[in-house]
Amino acid sequence: MKEFKYNIKILLRKKELYYCIIGVLLINAIHVILVINHYSPNMILKTGEYQFILYNNEVTIMSLVIIALPILTSLVLSDTSWNDKHLGYNNYLYTRLNIKKNIFSRLFLSFITTFIICFVGFILNYLALRFIFGSGNLISNFQELPYDRVIAPEFFLDSIRYYNPVLFIILISLHESVIIGLLATISYSFSFFTKQKLIIYFQVTLIMIVLEVVFSFIGISQFSIIKQLQPNSSFSVYQSIILYIVLSLIAITPVLLITKKGDIL
Question: Which of 127, 185, 206, 263 is the most exposed place for a label (fewest CB within 10 A)?
Answer without folding.
Answer: 263
